[in-house]
């Protein structure tokens, strides 16, 4: 039986094919595919088409700038997507904002319609580049796209931003291109707001046995000074048991928060070749030494032969 995640990814690839045209034997993508921002719950990203290299294997970088530490409900915030990569000459991105219940977080205002656009699929809004916004022929970067995000209503809680972007060689084929991921979070500006928050962004949730489950974790400070914060993670198996039964998948990773800054961590876990073919839940927490958890995030992944 096909899993829902597979059906979603299949429909995304189908929409990509419909949105493409053959011109002189070259594949020209007219409209960027929706649903590849590296976003929850299926975490599809630009490698679905641009698959020559793994995530982040180029010499470039991707940043989402302007995300507030704490948002005021209904307020508009200018954001900037910035990518660079030596020797690449075409560029693209996709970005979305999601609440913890999977609904859209706030709304987007397209301030530069020549280079950016938005669309909606499965009830989720994505912002992305236009054809002109791929900046064909502009070498190396940095390339910047400008957007405006309107914060959600009061009581919405944590907002998670997910982004995937491509630095292309401009050959009009999905080869020779580098893909980058980025994620961030913010919380509502209210009395008793969380000290820090966590967002997880796996490179894939379909993991063959014997390969690595790679997870990008981003810890974000929300303007409250305090002691160091630790990141730990475990896997919850079907039926509720935990792996490992005691302790965590890795030793705690400690971070001394700096006001208004984030702390990206790349976690890699090798799946044993003898692991059962199951769906399991990866759970991570952040917290202070001896204290309760400050935040958690989780996602479901599938083990394949």
Element order: H for helix, E for strand? HEEEEEEEEEEEEEEEEEEEEE
Computed Rg: 19 Å
Q: What's the count of strands?
A: 21
Please name the fourth-level CATH homologous superfamily of the largest domain: Reeler domain
DSSP summary: helix tally:
1
The chain-level structural class is mainly beta
Q: How do the strands of the widest beta sheet line up side by side?
A: 4-12-11-6-9-8
CATH class category name of the largest domain: Mainly Beta
Strand content: over 45%
CATH topology of the largest domain: Immunoglobulin-like
Shape-level CATH architecture of the largest domain: Sandwich
Helix fraction by DSSP (H/I, runs of at least 4): under 10%
3D shape: globular
Low-pLDDT regions? 1-28
Average pLDDT over all residues: 90
Report the end-to-end length measured between terminal Cα atoms. 15 Å
Count of folded domains: 2
Let me know the largest β-sheet. 6 strands, mixed
Task: Describe the protein in words.
The chain is mainly beta and 305 residues long. The protein has two domains: 185 residues, Sandwich (Immunoglobulin-like); 109 residues, Immunoglobulin-like. 5% of the residues lie in helices and 47% in strands. The protein is built from one helix and 21 strands. It has a six-stranded mixed beta sheet with strand order 4-12-11-6-9-8, with no helix packed on it. Strands 14, 16, 17, 18, 20 and 21 form a six-stranded mixed beta sheet that branches. The longest helix is centred in the N-terminal third of the chain and has 15 residues. The N terminus is likely disordered.
